[in-house]
């Protein structure tokens, strides 16, 4: 059969891309049409995302996609939790970046009304200081009539329709994990106005046609279809698993490590281990822990490059792989690594304060970061399995980090489990597959979608 053209907009915290996919009932082929850097921008009031800049790149990418193929539909995903505030359709300032430190005040405000254990029972989320609920608690909302998560904001700009896609909405801390609907009781207790939260839609639902001026600019009559708009939800759809006993590591800026379940686990042990229940595609639950991820490495590289030198990541990783000096095995999850700036210095101080061995080269520090991440990954896989009772016989490592052979090898060694690496663009693939199913190109549940991925992409296996 003739392949169907589908576009995926995938905005990661490190880079964004527009991908053009050609899909048949049994295969998917991906072509990158645009890629652009992304990251925090500091202005005097704090850290922000340049969403207008991102939107401009998205439009250019979609225009190019439509030039190359008759795109039937568009799906948008991005990092979670962050949002724009709107009044009468107008965005009130650039969204804050989740690494902005204003959220500390919001955490205090929320916990003073709803203690942490009660909040966990109400929303099922691990404590991350930037969960939307804490961010909103630090905002003035009197004049606001809508809060739109980033993918929903872009969908609104494309279609004129304001919705909240459910997987990403689950990261706000304002959804009831039992019903998957906005938690009205929690909102009322926190004094958060429910009017600002738009109606929920599920992945696969059509959000709308392009606004006339957008259709004109893009040269396209595609529709926007809701996907797992939380990037991690889309990434997990595209895990090329061939058996159910897998753990996943969605590895880019963050390392999201866990298992897929049918129902949330809301135990005290899970809360103590900081495990979260995020909403997945087809009503699944992602039971996972946020590991700090390759942010530790990219942010260190950014510091090293401040003297004008250029660090080539594959070269650095190749040196790290053969490095045989002292290695610092540190706690990659230390909250002190959340904020941007001087990462290499902060890691070195962290290690010195704890009497850890100190490498004497950049390759040694890169090795230490990757070893520490692999240890945190292995630990999180073990804990996910213990807490959920889910057997794990394979780890699927997907996302940009799957290109990091050293990381894959060390994760296999430290976990004692085989690591299957790839696809790199899992998120975009998961985004496309949900659209393809909505269009009737592919049929079936997640297992069927995953078998299309397994048949279409190259993976690499690392034995323990
Ligand atoms: P995000 O979606 O969060 O922006 P990605 O999934 O695109 O992140 O992954 C980005 C990460 O992939 C980078 O931080 C980098 O560490 C890693 N990466 C990219 N290219 C390579 C490469 N050639 N070799 C090893 N790692 C790479
Ligand atoms: C990864 C991610 C992750 C969230 C974080 C804010 O990009 O969406 O799942 O916890 O960003």
UniProtKB/TrEMBL annotation:
Residues 7-237 form the Carbohydrate kinase FGGY N-terminal domain. GO terms for biological process: glycerol metabolic process; rhamnose catabolic process. Keywords: ATP-binding, Disulfide bond, Kinase, Nucleotide-binding, Rhamnose metabolism, Transferase. InterPro entries: ATPase_NBD, Carb_kinase_FGGY, FGGY_C, FGGY_N, Rhamnulokinase. GO terms for molecular function: ATP binding; glycerol kinase activity; rhamnulokinase activity. Transmembrane segments: none annotated. Signal peptide: none annotated. SUPFAM superfamilies: Actin-like ATPase domain (SSF53067). One of its GO terms (cellular component) is cytosol. Residues 247-438 form the Carbohydrate kinase FGGY C-terminal domain. Belongs to the FGGY kinase family. PANTHER family: L-RHAMNULOKINASE, SUGAR KINASE. This is Rhamnulokinase.
